[in-house]
Amino acid sequence: MRVVFAGTPEVAVPALNAIADSAHELVGVVTRPDAPAGRGRKLVASPVAQRAEELGVPVLKPEHPRDPEFQEALAALRPDCCPVVAYGALLPQSALDIPEHGWVNLHFSVLPSWRGAAPVQHSVWAGDEVTGATTFRIVKALDAGPTFGVMTERIRETDTSGDLLARLAEGGAGLLVATLDGIADGSLEAREQPEEGVSFAPKILVEDAEIDWTEPAVAVDRRVRACTPAPGAWSTQVVDGETQRIKVGPVTIAEDRERLAPGELEVTKNAVFVGTATTPVRLGDVKAFGKKQMPAADWARGVRLESGTRFGA
Known about the structure:
Helices cover 26% and strands 24% of the residues. The chain has helices spanning 13-20, 47-55, 68-76, 93-96, 119-126, 161-185, 217-226, 296-302; strands spanning 2-7, 25-30, 35-37, 42-44, 59-60, 82-85, 103-107, 130-137, 147-154, 234-239, 242-248, 252-253, 265-267, 272-274, 281-282, 285-288, 294-295. The longest helix is centred in the middle third of the chain and has 25 residues, at 161-185. The radius of gyration is 22 Å and the shape is elongated.
């Protein structure tokens, strides 16, 4: 089939590479417009755009896919199908109608669970044991289209969202190509999603990532892992009379430590522990405002942190 791939972030690149290496003809790529990045805030092309340019594939960067000029350019490419991974914009029906076989999305959950923008983060946060990826035909309703295929992936106890998403991106790339193969040879038929088991995964905001030390250690651990690497779990601490935000990397539940009050810090030579509603947790890396990320023990020595001080104060 002639295909036009749509995607934007790094997580979409494995699927783009897999399609480029497949028997399908990659005739174009759709991605979000260049965006400011870095300290200089210079406009930078998306990871998908950069890879498409390396592949020598035409790139379309509409401000919005409803733009008539974009839809004309897409139609001119004569795609039979448009595979999608994390494109990042809502597609109007007029764009969905252009390819004969529609737009086929690779979504990082086992639908109908975790429809929405942040399925991997919500799956980690909820403590799911298994997640996966699903290919489905895009319809107007959010992630509600009929499905073609599914893969599953066990969530490891130490997985961050970044870890899990990387594995799903690689495995899902093969699933997406297999779906395109099945559509092309007529062996795959989309099936409507069940009405039961629907859950939603809205985008996790910075304010959602603030650690609540009054929660049990298991809940603290899940929140931190779910928010790593983005938006980044954080807490606050008073330093020199000012409240500063401290980013917190993955923690370890310290079952052998004595209880601490929620948010209370215990500083040792080689570690920093924080109290929760249950067992303390040992901090991994932390990043103070304006500083580089570093092991918690190094940070504690640098700011002369003493036991008994608190997070969240």
